[in-house]
Amino acid sequence: MTEWDIKKLQILRTLRDRGTVTATAEALLMTPSAVSQQLTNLAKQLGVQLLEAQGRRVRLTDAAHLVLRHAEAVFAQLERADAELAGYLRGEAGEVRLAAFSTAVPALVVPAVQHLRAAHPSLAVRVREAEAAEAYELLTAGEVDLALSLAAHAPSARDPKYARVPLLADPLDVALPAGHPLADAPGLRLHDLSAEPWIFGGSGPWSEITTAACEAAGFVPEQAHSAAGWTAILAMVEAGMGIALVPRMASAERRAGVVMRVLSADQPRRHVVAAVRRGAEEGPAVARVLAALRQAAAARETV
After folding, report:
1. Most buried of 16, 134, 211, 245, CB within 10 angstroms?
2. Which pLDDT score, from 0 to 100, does residue 91 have?
3. What's the mean pLDDT in 20-34?
4. Distance of CA 163 to the CA centre of its chain
């Protein structure tokens, strides 16, 4: 039987994900020469060519992709083994490390943790605030066990490394200054605000979400001001400097001088998902945290 080396397969997978030997070495805290040597040894063990030169870079051969397709099943099974062993050794005790974007922390993570502390006091949840790209880097590196993000910025559902769990379709409401002419207008639609100055981030998820929602309503928003935090955005709305789309999950940030209008006729939403390394979702501790997050999300949808 062919000798399969898990460590070398992990190096090959990291090269596929990172694209270069140098980036792979940095990710795995190895030297580039050590990465190359390990992959050369793996090719000899398997009896196939795994890499071929492409200019100054290397690319994976078809044989390498075949090997990784089967290796993903092995990695998933090892995650399941780790999860089951942890459940056997700790029972309901243990720790789950969770990365989540800013508005998800008070809206979903905190209620979930409060529930778990009452129901499973020996299960600890360690929370780390991180935006989408960082959250999945942490998950891939094994530094967190679960990542919360927006579906548009999460790994594809076809990615064999992750299992995705839908949590919430979070409505986006429009924030208007209290004295705005449309603050009390009946049947307000997003297109009614096409001529308004808008406030949203200069780049990143919220810029993309605002632009996509407005384009779906038939216009491109004119960005008057750029800000990333809800405190700054709503302060500018309150001052009459512009308007903004605000996720309902950010309701704790709302201000007295801001009117929040529900766009019931064409309600835009952002979809919140959780992701774990495939196979780990079957571990009892991670499963309990996911269940608590789903419960917190369901409670928000009924409000």
Report:
1. 245
2. 45
3. 93
4. 12
Structure tokens at 161: 């490394």
Indicate the residue type of 122: S
Where are the domain boundaries for CATH 1.10.10.10 in the chain?
6-71
- Whether residue 85 has pLDDT greater than 80: no
Helix 6-18, helix 21-28: angle, nearest 10? 120
Which residues of the chain does CATH 3.40.190.10 include? 92-168+271-301, 170-267
Global confidence as pTM: 0.71
Q: Please provide the CATH number assigned to the domain covering 92-168+271-301.
A: 3.40.190.10
* Mean pLDDT to the nearest integer, 113-119: 93
Q: Are 127 and 184 a contacting pair, CB within 8 Å?
A: no
Q: State residue 93's pLDDT score.
A: 63
